[in-house]
């Protein structure tokens, strides 16, 4: 069993072959996929895509890029989606000081609101952090006790203790397979096994053998294999451990 804890399979780049994508994932042993919402439209889309599909679970949230467009009506609709029993997490939320497609104040307000929502609903939060380490930490500390995952962790081992102390899980993507990314590999070695998750973030960040191409859940095995190599573990052993961690965080059982 392998769990892809962050995928965007409802994006239009999958429109021509979405069913084949799910079939290829199943053939590669990807037993669970978390479909992640980034705005109201995509959150509704992942909820619809996951409905009736075994092993596929939706989230709902507002990505920092979309924070400035989240008015009161949008937030109310996101909250309704997050409150549904089938929704396993709040987010993708967080802060992005690299692209800043939304103003900083809008991102901060949106992230604070979603952290509070996660606390209120007792659901985990999926956190995007790009060039915003200190500010993400500050807001997580404001809502200490909210559980969640640092999605597509791109920092090094030295930043890890701050997130681990806050109870966060750490998820690695295909970025860890890139030859020049030794800092991220050091982090993958250092994360305690019980906090480790894996993801594709597809259609982005395909692992090295398919770098530059559209990513999909079936390719997660390469990322998992690289992390296993780094840690001196067997791939199947790591698959079981990361899937157990995902079950514990997201609460979707042993499907």
What attributes does this structure have?
alpha/beta, TIM Barrel, globular, 255 residues, single chain, 8 strands, five-stranded parallel beta sheet, 41% helix
Polypeptide structure, described:
This protein has one domain (2-250): Metal-dependent hydrolases (TIM Barrel, Alpha-Beta Barrel). The strands form two sheets. The protein has a five-stranded parallel beta sheet with strand order 4-5-6-7-8. It has a three-stranded parallel beta sheet with strand order 1-2-3. The model has no long low-confidence stretch (mean pLDDT 96). The chain has 255 residues and is of the alpha/beta class. The longest helix is centred in the middle third of the chain and has 18 residues, at 104-121. It is built from nine helices and eight strands.
In short:
The chain is an alpha/beta fold and 255 residues long. The chain has a single domain, classed as Metal-dependent hydrolases (TIM Barrel).
